[in-house]
Design goal:
The longest helix has 50 residues. It is rod-shaped, with a radius of gyration of 45 Å. By secondary structure, the chain is an alpha+beta fold. It contains 19 helices and 11 strands. Strands 1-9-10-11-7-8 form a 6-stranded mixed beta sheet, sandwiched between helices. It folds into 3 domains: 143 residues; 147 residues, GAF domain (Beta-Lactamase, 2-Layer Sandwich), CATH 3.30.450; 185 residues, Hypothetical protein af1432 (Orthogonal Bundle), CATH 1.10.3210.
Length: 551
């Protein structure tokens, strides 16, 4: 398909008509100011009378129009010479570039009452007595002065016409700048609200509201297409098309899909503009859509949605200005939607990696199977109680799942030993935080998890391992994870011992607050311990890494 498809109603060009309004009035007024008398105006092409002077006898004589039509060049000149009279012609640029000629008769010498002025009377269209009376009332002009003044007046009229044209251009430019400013503001507002983590519905609502304010349209709509299949996602993703609309939209989601399919639109098709001449056609699928602009929201060959503007108020038509703006918004939203989905796909890949690592931990130490998931969920509940933001909750959950990943490097005989460990064996076990850190260190996406993996066995009083950090030297995420890990470890059964009662665990927490554990985290535990008990008793059949789906 071509890059741009425009379908619009054909309007036949109207014949050019001579405007006898402001421009001719301005020319006539300028000549009257210069010469003290009014001029007659003629069409320079046809000799047609455009404006007759009330001060000039014979001004409507069509013979003068033919004389004016026959002048040579663009300079003021005399086109008739009768006795004491000269007929002055001044060529001018008229409306729409049409030439006009201004004519007027002037007395160029003194006249005696006894003279017989037959030629002058004929030129004026008067009898001898009335012609003489009119001539005697006129100012006597030197011929060269008439030509010089006519040249000056001609230049002034051209300058005034140019100034008027420039004023119109300035006004048009001002209107265009105002419209362009609104468009730039709209594009700026859209780009400033593009966030990978932002809510898609909220962004669509903002864009629709801005477009509705900026464009003359009864309705605007965005249809987002599916990006994943049902049941194939860990993180929230669209599995069905959805339509967001604002205003009096004549289409529902199914109707919008039908429209796109009927128009056979695809990625790279550019903006499609349809106005009434097209939509009145019998083959148009939706009679309620009288005017339409629709553009793809695409990245390369992949269409992620459609942006549409529907029905111009009062039956007007959409044009290239509106289509260009909608196309720009559609391109921005298409790239943004693609980036969001790429980010989701990256997160899905990371989820697969985490699942594989968690399965490896469970396979290494089957007696603690499920421990990492429980610690992760308990850690999230504690972090939520402490007022941590959603990003921290997600990081906490990932850290809980992976906190013991270093046990992959611990000897099976030591890890699965049913009896008490020797000092050497215990020192070997204590290597797992650093081993875990080294395993995950090259995964940039898990950088926020590393402090928890490395420091979850540090103690508030500085007696932990591996670096004997104390107090707030220990990262908050590690302090939270230490309590979650201790709770599940003490409550769970092991081959060499049964799990402790919750009451005994809580006694140890109270005794160890501000010594082994952060007192604030212990307080958070007692504020939500009923929830934590439920978590410890619940085995999750399916691992879900999107915290927002279960917190």
């Amino acid at each position: 398909m071509p890059a741009t498809v425009e379908i619009r109603k054909f309007v036949a060009p109207q014949p050019l008509q001579v405007d006898s309004g402001p421009e001719l009035t301005r020319c006539s007024a300028a000549l009257r100011r210069a010469f003290g008398t009014s001029f007659t105006l003629w069409d320079g092409n046809s000799g047609e009378l455009l404006h007759a002077s009330v001060q000039q006898p014979g001004s409507n004589d069509l013979f003068r129009g033919q004389l004016a039509r026959a002048i040579h060049g663009n300079e003021p000149q005399f086109i008739a010479d009768e006795d004491c009279l000269l007929l002055l012609a001044v060529p001018l640029d008229g409306p729409h570039g049409r030439p006009i000629v201004a004519t007027a008769s002037f007395v160029v010498r003194d006249v005696s009452q006894k003279e017989y002025l037959n030629g002058a009377a004929t030129l004026l269209g008067l009898d001898q007595a009335r012609a003489m009376a009119w001539i005697m009332r006129q100012q006597v002009w030197p011929a060269d002065a008439l030509l010089r003044l006519a040249t000056a007046a001609q230049a002034q009229i051209k300058a005034e016409a140019r100034a008027s044209d420039l004023q119109k251009e300035v006004e048009k430019l001002s209107d265009n700048l105002a419209s362009t400013y609104e468009e730039i503001c709209l594009l700026h507002s859209v780009t400033q609200n593009l966030r990978i983590s932002s809510d898609e519905e909220e962004l669509c609502s903002l864009v629709l509201r801005w477009l509705k304010d900026c464009l003359p349209a009864q309705a605007v709509a965005i249809q987002l297409l599916p990006v994943a299949k049902e049941g194939h996602t860990t993180y929230k993703a669209r599995t069905q098309s959805v339509l967001y609309a604002l205003g009096d939209c004549p289409l529902d989601n199914d109707g919008f899909t039908t429209l796109i399919e009927t128009l056979n639109l695809e990625a790279g098709c550019g903006p499609l503009v349809a106005n009434r001449a097209v939509t009145d056609d019998a083959g148009w699928p939706l009679p309620k859509v009288q005017q339409l602009i629709v553009v793809p929201m695409a990245e390369g060959a992949r269409v992620l949605g459609w942006l549409a503007v529907l029905n111009h108020p009062c039956g007007g038509e959409f044009g290239t200005v509106e289509a260009s703006l909608v196309n720009s918004i559609g391109a921005i939203l298409g790239i943004h939607s693609s980036n969001r989905d790429l980010y989701r796909q990256q997160a899905e890949f990371l989820a697969s990696v985490v699942r594989a690592l968690t399965s490896a931990i469970d396979a290494k130490d089957p007696y603690t199977c499920g421990h990492s998931d429980r610690v992760a969920r308990i850690g999230v509940r504690l972090a939520k109680e402490l007022g941590c933001d959603p990003k921290m909750l997600h990081t906490m959950y990932m850290a809980g799942l992976l906190h013991d990943i270093g046990k992959i490097g611990i000897d099976d005989a030591v890890l699965r030993k049913p009896g008490k460990l020797t000092e050497a064996e215990f020192n070997h076990i204590k290597e797992h935080p650093e081993l875990g850190y080294r395993i995950l260190a090259d995964l940039h996406e898990l950088a926020d998890v590393l402090p928890a993996v490395l420091h979850h066995h540090e103690q508030w009083d500085g007696k932990g391992y591996p670096f004997k950090l104390a107090g707030e030297q220990i990262p908050l995420i590690a302090r939270i994870l230490a309590v979650a890990d201790a709770y599940d470890a003490m409550c769970s059964d092991r081959p060499y011992r049964r799990g402790m009662p919750v009451e005994r665990v809580e006694e140890l927490f109270q005794q160890g607050a501000a010594q082994q554990w952060d007192a604030e985290v212990i307080r958070a535990y007692f504020a939500c311990n009923s929830d934590i008990r439920k978590i410890s008793q619940e085995e999750r059949a399916n691992l879900t890494l999107d915290v927002q789906q279960w917190t």
